[in-house]
Amino acid sequence: MKQHIIPAIRLTIACILLFMVAYPTLIFLIAKAAPAGGEGQTVVANGRTAGYLLEGQSFTWDRYFQGRPSAAGYNAAGSSGSNKGPSNPDYLKMVRDRIDSFVVHNPTVQKGEIPSDLVTASGSGLDPDISLKSAIVQVSRIADVRKLPREQVMLLVQRSVEKSINGIEKINVLTINIALDQLSKEK
Hints:
The chain is mainly α. It folds into 2 domains: 39 residues; 133 residues, no CATH class. The protein contains 6 helices and 5 strands; from the N terminus they run αββαβαααββα. It has a 3-stranded antiparallel beta sheet. Strands 1-2 form a two-stranded antiparallel sheet. A hairpin with a 2-residue loop joins strand 1 and strand 2. It is elongated.
């Protein structure tokens, strides 16, 4: 029995040191080396904190670019996907409802032109970015509501494009909406 207990105790101590001391310390040090020291990058507009750069937010007014839907209700404490598969009837109804709502608010866009990231939630439920195509299909609505030339809104979209690590073009919804408010003030 002694030959099994001693190695088990050693393994337990090694796992405690590795998983409760070494690993958390390593993650903490990596976070402190990241931008904003692992505290989240806040975005400030007009002297106030408008939100976090890497956390999706709900923009429902037609005058703003809308981001990805959130299965977590944009609650960072409960970050999660819906766990519903692509053939789940409830999930399909939810996506159809989002498509119908989008068409109501964007009458110049056909259902087949709506990018999937505007009607499906991300795995975390907090994706702060949309695809370039998702921004472009919203340009007409925003230009009409804000009474801005479409070309001016499209230029803002082009200036807001960022490339992800894998080369995919994306746009941060919070930063483009702040820039959109600035553009409207300059008008």
